[in-house]
């Protein structure tokens, strides 16, 4: 039974495949359907192949497990559902799993999606569930025959692209936090609604920074280890690219730590101001109650309506009581000012 041919299209599990550094003939057009045989995806050190697969397609999963020639452990690492960034040496190649920003329409700003990669001297296999802009850019270069010529260089280009796109996301969070901090400093007596809005924005910034750091911290470590990996598929310039990416990712992790701490401090500041407002209001209410308490006692006493109440027959009694209450209130206010309670 002959091996079925597949189109280099997502319906068949193979998004595209090309011999490095690429060729327009490897990609489907109206005139050229760019048919590939699964058996064509074999290592060739003289002219390495790059195959980009869709992990959501059963045909791609079956090929990786049964016909790719990968070790079972390598295939399972490539196809596992839950992944954290890292790399594993599995002869004769490396499994590298990284995360990148999801730049597709409708994606959350802190959503990081995974790309799984198998690299050996004559072949590179990349596996994804969601479209990657970095891979799309490399595909355009491959269509023009301008992609890297080695699998290690392709990996370095993907690592660099993913890392470069992470920087603006972290910088955007820093800018958002700067805006919130400026608003907090500019308005020390903001309304409760305004304070609630600022707290919500701070909470969102903290959540996004924690979510990003969850994957970037292990990715930093993976890239640093990859920079020291002595593998036949990697050259010194590739390791240099990994080292630069590791340093850049480390700075992003440090910025995320700073974001988290600054957002926590700003949240505490808003909470302290709210408690201060509540305390000030409670204090004023207590002073008012202290002044009003003896007045309530007097009005209650003269309102009990029993026999023997003084001044019942006197037309000036009401005004005398009002004057006495005013004097008592003024005395209470003067006393509070004297003891610096007001």
Polypeptide structure, described:
- This protein is of the alpha+beta class and 342 residues long.
- It has 2 domains: 5-274, Beta Polymerase, domain 2; 283-303 and 311-338, no CATH class.
- The protein has helices at residues 58-67, 72-79, 133-143, 151-186, 192-227, 236-301, 317-338, and strands at residues 5-7, 14-19, 35-37, 49-54, 86-90, 93-101, 112-120, 123-128.
- The chain has a 6-stranded mixed beta sheet with strand order 2-4-8-7-6-5, sandwiched between helices. Strands 1-3 form a two-stranded antiparallel sheet.
- Helix 6 runs antiparallel to helix 7.
- The protein is rod-shaped.
- Mean pLDDT is 85; it is low at 1-11.
The CATH topology of the largest domain comes to: Beta Polymerase, domain 2
Mean pLDDT: 85
Major sheet attributes? 6 strands, mixed
Give the helix tally: 7
Fraction of residues in β-strands: 5-15%
Number of domains as seen in the coordinates: 2
- Give the termini separation: 97 Å
Structural class: alpha+beta
* Backbone shape: rod-shaped
Uncertain spans, ≥5 residues at pLDDT below 50? 1-11
Strand order of the biggest β-sheet: 2-4-8-7-6-5
Over all CA atoms, what is the radius of gyration?
A: 36 Å
| Fourth-tier CATH superfamily name of the largest domain | CorA soluble domain-like
CATH class of the largest domain: Alpha Beta
Order of helices and strands: EEEEHHEEEEHHHHH
Report the count of strand segments.
Answer: 8
Q: Give the name of the CATH architecture of the largest domain.
A: 2-Layer Sandwich
User: Which percent bin holds the helix content?
Assistant: 55-70%
């Amino acid at each position: 039974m002959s091996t079925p041919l597949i189109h280099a299209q997502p319906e068949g599990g193979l998004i595209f495949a090309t011999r490095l550094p690429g060729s327009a003939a490897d990609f489907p057009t109206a005139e050229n359907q760019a048919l590939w045989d699964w058996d064509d995806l074999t290592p060739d050190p003289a002219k390495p192949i790059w195959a980009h697969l869709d992990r959501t397609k059963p045909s791609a999963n079956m090929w990786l497990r049964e016909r790719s020639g990968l070790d079972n452990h390598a295939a399972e690492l490539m196809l596992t559902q839950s992944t954290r960034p890292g790399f594993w040496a599995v002869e004769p190649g490396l499994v590298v799993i990284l995360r990148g920003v999801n730049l597709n329409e409708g994606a959350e700003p802190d959503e990081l999606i995974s790309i799984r990669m198998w690299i050996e001297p004559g072949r590179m296999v990349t596996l994804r569930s969601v479209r990657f802009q970095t891979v799309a850019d490399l595909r355009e270069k491959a269509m023009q025959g301008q992609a890297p010529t080695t699998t290690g260089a392709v990996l370095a280009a993907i690592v660099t692209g993913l890392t470069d796109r992470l920087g603006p996301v972290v910088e955007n969070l820093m800018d958002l936090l700067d805006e919130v901090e400026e608003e907090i400093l500019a308005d020390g007596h903001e309304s409760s609604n305004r304070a609630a809005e600022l707290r919500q924005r701070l909470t969102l910034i903290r959540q996004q920074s924690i979510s990003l750091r969850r994957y970037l911290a292990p990715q930093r470590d993976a890239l640093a280890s990859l920079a020291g990996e002595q593998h036949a598929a990697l050259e010194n310039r590739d390791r240099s690219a990994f080292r630069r990416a590791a340093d850049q990712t480390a700075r992003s992790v440090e910025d995320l730590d700073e974001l988290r701490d600054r957002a926590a401090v700003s949240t505490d500041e808003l909470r302290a101001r709210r408690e201060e407002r509540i305390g000030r209001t409670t204090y004023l209410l207590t002073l008012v109650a202290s002044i009003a308490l003896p007045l309530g006692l007097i009005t209650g006493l003269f309102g009990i309506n029993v026999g023997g109440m003084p001044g019942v027959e006197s037309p000036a009694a009401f005004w005398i009581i009002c004057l006495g209450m005013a004097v008592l209130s003024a005395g209470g206010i003067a006393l509070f000012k004297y003891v610096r309670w007001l």
